[in-house]
Known about the structure:
- Helices cover 41% and strands 20% of the residues.
- It has 222 residues and is α/β, with parallel strands linked by helices.
- Strands 2-1-3-4-5 form a 5-stranded parallel β-sheet, with helices on both faces. A 4-stranded antiparallel β-sheet has the order 6-7-8-9, with helices on one face. Strands 10-11 form a two-stranded antiparallel sheet.
- Helix 2 (33-42) runs parallel beside helix 3 (59-68) and helix 6 packs across helix 8 (189-201).
Amino acid sequence: MRILLVEDDPLLGDGLRTGLRQLGFEVDWVRRGDVAEQELRAHPYAAAVLDLGLPGKDGMEVLSLVRHAGNKTPVLVLTARDALPERIQGLDAGADDFVVKPVDLNELAARLRALVRRACGQATERLSAQDVTLDPAARTVRRGDTPVTLSKSEFDLLQVLMLNAGRVLSRQQLEQQLYAWGREVESNAIEVHIHHLRRKLGSALIHTVRGVGYTLLREAPA
């Protein structure tokens, strides 16, 4: 799951990026508000963590601008500003959640998962389709009652497909949601991971729409 981290403090930003990566997120980190606005307009992030006191453009301005442009990326505001009027202003400007520094990394990750889940119309933490269940917090997958071992890339791809069950996603869309900056991606990486998922979870789960992309089927075809 690819997210945008916007934080100008180098120590905090590096710590958050490292910690969130360890918890399963792909993280792009920028330190300026104007750059954050450009990235949010250019890439389909699953969510963004946005500081307010930023060079270039204030985080509140960035939030207001992208919302007025129609951008629906879930945004968690992470800030040292804990006054109630500012929290109200941030929520009214389009923030989906508001967390005051310092924040526990596990809590931050849980809040991000909740934002992404709600944005995709998922009511519960665990994702299910056919006989497959995925737990984003524990990063586990089961087929029926049997645990299934997946690589990180296979798990991340399955999670994106399950969050978008019934929607056809192209290879480019999947790559944009799965890989942060600097990640070298083989041209056939998505196809290889799809092949492995089908082998481990059954061929009926992921359907190829020829010439378009892939979709995950909630119910097995008749």
